[in-house]
Every structure is written in structure tokens, then in C-alpha cells.
Specification:
The chain is mostly helical and 152 residues long. The chain has one helix and no strands. The chain is rod-shaped and about 200 Å long.
Length: 152
């Protein structure tokens, strides 16, 4: 057993430099590689998360601008529709006024034509009356004349 303990002691004593070198290597790795690598990864993560947050903010701003644009577009369409409606109403009003004016002119022409026709009718009636009188007189003279007097 003494021999085993002695060998174990020698092994432990021989492994001390390896343990020291392993601890030194771990410390050097931690300070030289691990800490800088961790800082770089954290920085990258923060930049990525920052970019994601910035992207979300940009998307929100774009959505706000889009909704504002859509609202302006709706307002512009409403304005255009109102302008079209007012132009249509003005056109209908002008058309109604023109039709009323044309109707009144046509009625005036019809009245004037009726008056002219009435005058012509009266003149024709007077002419017919005078012709009827002269024909009646002529017929009476021929009927009342002796039968042989008109043939000489």
C-alpha cells in the first residue's frame, strides 16, 4: 500500500505542472478569446435587436403614412365627386333654363302664328262673305231675269 501511495504521490506531483498549465491555459483562453468573443456576440445581438426595433419603427411609420395617404385619397375623391355633382347640377340648371326659354319662345311663336291664322281666317271669311253676297246677287239676277233676256 505504501507503494501505491508513493506512486499516487508521484503522479500527483507530476500532474501539478499539467494542472498549472491547464489552469493557465483556461485563464488565457478566458481573457484572450472568451470575453472578447462574448462582447462581440452581445454587441451583434444588440445591433440586430436595434435593427429589428428600427425596422418595426419604420414599418409603423410607413403604415401611418399609408393610412394618411389613404385618408387624403378619400378626401380628394370626395372633393372630386362633389365638384362633379355641382357641375352636373349646374349643367342641369342651365339645361332647364334653356328649355324654359325655348318653351316660352315656342309658345310666343305659337301665339303669334295663331293670331296670324286668326287674321287670315277673318280676312278669308270677309272675302268669302263678299263673294257670297256678289254670287247671291248674281244668282238672284239670273233667276229673276226673263228667260230670253240673257240670250240675245
Amino acid at each position: 500500500m505504501d507503494e501505491t501511495l508513493r506512486q499516487l504521490g508521484e503522479l500527483l506531483l507530476g500532474s501539478v505542472p499539467t494542472v498549472i498549465l491547464l489552469a493557465l491555459l483556461y485563464a488565457l483562453y478566458t481573457f484572450i478569446v472568451h470575453h472578447p468573443l462574448r462582447r462581440v456576440l452581445e454587441e451583434r445581438r444588440s445591433k440586430t435587436e436595434g435593427a429589428v426595433e428600427k425596422s418595426r419603427a419604420d414599418i409603423a411609420a410607413a403604415e401611418a403614412r399609408t393610412s394618411e395617404y389613404e385618408q387624403r385619397l378619400r378626401e380628394a375623391r370626395g372633393t372630386v365627386f362633389r365638384a362633379q355633382e355641382s357641375r352636373r347640377k349646374a349643367s342641369l340648371d342651365a339645361r332647364s333654363a334653356a328649355m324654359a326659354e325655348a318653351r316660352s319662345k315656342a309658345q310666343a311663336q305659337v301665339r303669334a302664328a295663331k293670331a296670324g291664322i286668326e287674321k287670315d281666317r277673318e280676312a278669308a271669311q270677309e272675302g268669302l262673305q263678299s263673294q257670297a253676297q256678289s254670287l247671291a246677287t248674281e244668282i238672284m239676277q239670273r233667276v229673276l231675269e226673263p228667260a230670253g233676256a240673257g240670250r240675245r
